[in-house]
Amino acid sequence: MSHKQLADDQLFQQYCKKVKADKRNTRLWQIVLFISFFVLWEVTSRYGLIDRLIFSSPTKVWDLFIANLLDGSLWYHLRITLFETVAGFIIGTLAGIVLAASLWWSDKLSKILDPYLVVLNALPKVALGPIIIVALGPGYFSIITMGAIISVIITTLVVYSSFNEVDENYVKVLKSFGASKWQCFKEAIFPATLPSIISTFKVNVGLSWVGVIVGEFLVASEGLGYLIVYGFQVFNFTLVMYSLLLVAFFAAIMYQIVERLEKILIKNR
Amino acid sequence: MSFLHLDHVSYHYFYKKGYTKALENVSFTVPEGSFISLLGPSGCGKTTLLSIIAGILEPSEGTIQLEEKPLEASKLDIGYMLQQDYLFPWKTILENVLMGPKIQKMQKRAMKEKAIKLLEDIGLSKVIDSYPQSLSGGMRQRAALVRTLLTDPKLLLLDEPFSALDFQTKLKLEDLVSGLLKEFNKTSVLVTHDIGEAIAMSDKIFLMKANPGEIHEVFEVPIEIRNLTPFQARKHLKYQQLFDRVWEELNSLESQTVSR
Ligand SMILES: Nc1ncnc2c1ncn2[C@@H]1O[C@H](COP(=O)(O)OP(=O)(O)O)[C@@H](O)[C@H]1O
Ligand SMILES: [Mg+2]
User: Fold this and answer.
1) Which pLDDT value is given to residue A69?
2) Rounded CA gap, B251 and B42, in Å?
3) Region B79-93: what's the mean pLDDT?
4) Where are the transmembrane segments (chain A) (predicted)?
5) Which of A42, A69, A118, B202 could form a disulfide with B35 if both were Cys (CB 3.0 to 4.6 A apart)?
6) Alpha helices in chain A, H assignment, sequence order
7) Which residues have CB under 8 Å from B32's CB, separation 6+?
8) Residue B177 binned pLDDT confidence (cut-offs 50, 70, 90)
9) Does residue B98 line the site of ligand 1, with CB under 6 A?
């Protein structure tokens, strides 16, 4: 019997090895793709195959990065945009969840608001930018509002519909113990929908970046969105590329953080 | 003394395009400490009836009295076990079982001890801190039973608690549940579509018919069977006799509905 088990163990080890090799191979291709992109960019730009003035080059972007890192302007602009984005994300998401909960709470309210939500959802929120800026004044406050407003309606709709999809028998169990509406929400509805709430987080990370960058396009005099517009106006495309790469990097980090959060919060399902 | 009394209870489900009359003129009385079964084909309104008794649905007509008081006024605890276990997948077995006390804001410590003791008695000591997904159907059903019993309800409503289980598990659980309920002198209403289960477990059987749900006939279970465990009862001669009578009645019901 131990002989047989030895053979089984060997098979398992082989399987593990294969999984590992597969993973390494994938990672290798990812790195190859990454490096060739920058090499191709550098080479084509250096030999004039693409317009140097428009597309800049990795080395120039890198030089700018180092220079800005040293004189502190990198952190200065990054800090502002990050703060606005995180604030917009949190406010938009929380407001969406609270709105969804109030719709769930009152059937009447959800029926009354239904057509308004549909229209608001269809409306491209960035078109509200000028109005928001006029109403709230040019400044952080408007930009954060842009970051929040872009995700709040879609969050409300998605979360509300997932509240409604919870098997009503879970609520029935609680009601048989005499639970109040709030207890039903807290013990059944909310935890049952936590996975879909967190998946709206992931969407909202991307959305709040859109809102904030557009907001900065419109009014700001600092932040990464401002740097992009400014670079465009003075035809400094090294600055544009540099800001773009920073946005891409930090948006990815925020997304990763949300994914971690997801793993922690719903590990038992 | 009548413990639970239903008086001409009807229930309609309304939709945009019409309605279903799920129950019509259902009346019966359950004495304290007795065990009755509602037997009938699926769709005859058994689940609806239990939800009404549990106070989750309001009857469209008729009244329900518990200990001679209207249902809403009665402070009596009712334990309701649904057709499936509906354990919360994000809670451990112990947390699931403690759901009732948590909702009712009872003393935590004492309840926790009681819960652990009950879980041990029912053979779930090893899975107290596991999540429901890792349990078999029978174990989940037992956990759901502990959840129902923990708040010490005077009246128990059981909706096809054994229908999703394999035969062996079902026989074992029948004995277990029947023993527990007798020991604590509970009044119980069991819903089932299994004739054998109804006879083996209860004192009285209400045979229901569908469209609309009504009580069609009442069978008294012979005293000889009542005092046996369900497993022993199944072997008794009178069990077979009653089984045949119920079987025939169900068949004639079916042919009536077909010919109509
Ligand atoms: N939530 C509901 N909405 C509308 N109709 C329902 C609902 N639940 C049950 N019904 C209808 O009421 C009747 C009785 O259902 P139910 O009480 O579940 O029967 P049983 O438990 O005996 O199978 C059926 O015709 C069913 O279609
Ligand atoms: Mg049913």
Assistant:
1) 92
2) 14
3) 91
4) 28-49, 86-105, 117-137, 143-163, 207-228, 234-258
5) B202
6) 2-46, 52-55, 58-71, 73-105, 107-122, 129-136, 140-165, 168-176, 181-184, 190-218, 224-233, 237-265
7) B1, B3, B187
8) confident
9) no
Q: How many CB atoms lie within 10 A of CB B157?
A: 25
DSSP states along B65-134: EETTEETTT----EEEE-SS----TTS-HHHHHTHHHHHTT--HHHHHHHHHHHHHHTT-GGGTTS-GGG
Contact between B95 and B132 under an 8 Å Cβ cutoff? The reply is: no
Q: Ligand 1 within 6 A of B21 CB?
A: no
Using CB atoms, pick whichever of B84, B90, B151 lies closest to residue A268: B90
The C-alpha torsion from B92 through B94 and B100 to B101, rounded to 10°, is: -130
Identify whether the C-beta of residue B234 lies closer than 8 Å to the C-beta of residue B201.
no
**At residue B19, what is the residue type?**
Y
pLDDT in tens, A30-69: 999 999 999 999 999 989 888 888 888 999 999 999 999 9
d(CA B3, CA B33): 9
Phi, psi of B194 (to 5 degrees): -105, 110
Q: What is the three-class DSSP state of A3?
A: helix
Look at residue A48 and give its three-state secondary structure. coil
- What are the domain boundaries of chain B? 1-74+188-260
Burial (Cβ within 10 Å: 0-12, 13-18, ≥19) of residue B76: middle
Mutate to test the pocket of ligand 1, among B21, B44, B53, B207 (most ligand atoms within 8 A of CB): B44
**Contact A114/A153 with Cβ under 8 angstroms?**
no
Q: What mean pLDDT do residues A9-28 have?
A: 93
Q: Ligand 1 pocket test: pick from B48, B57, B58, B60 the residue with the most ligand atoms within 8 Å of its Cβ.
A: B48
Domain A58-267 annotated CATH 3.40.1380.20: no
Query: Would you tell me the crossing angle of helices A237-265 and A73-105 to the nearest 10 degrees?
Result: 40
Nearest to B249 by CA among B224, B222, B218: B218
Q: What is the CA radius of gyration of chain B?
A: 19
Q: Cβ of B78 under 8 Å from any chain A Cβ? A: yes
| Helix, strand or coil, per DSSP, at residue A266 | coil
Query: How far from chain centre, in Å, is Cα A112?
Result: 31
Name the residue in chain A with its Cα closest to that of B152: A177
pTM: 0.85
Residue B140 confidence (pLDDT) above 60: yes
Q: By the CB < 8 Å criterion, does A187 face chain B?
A: yes
Residue nearest to atom 8 of ligand 1 (CA): B48
* Contact assessment for residue B146 and residue B66, using Cβ atoms and an 8 Å cutoff: no
Rounded to a whole number of angstroms, the CA Rg of chain A reads 25
What element of type H or E holds B177? helix B167-183
Pick the CATH number of B1-74+188-260 from 3.40.50.300, 3.40.50.740, 3.10.560.10, 3.40.50.2300: 3.40.50.300
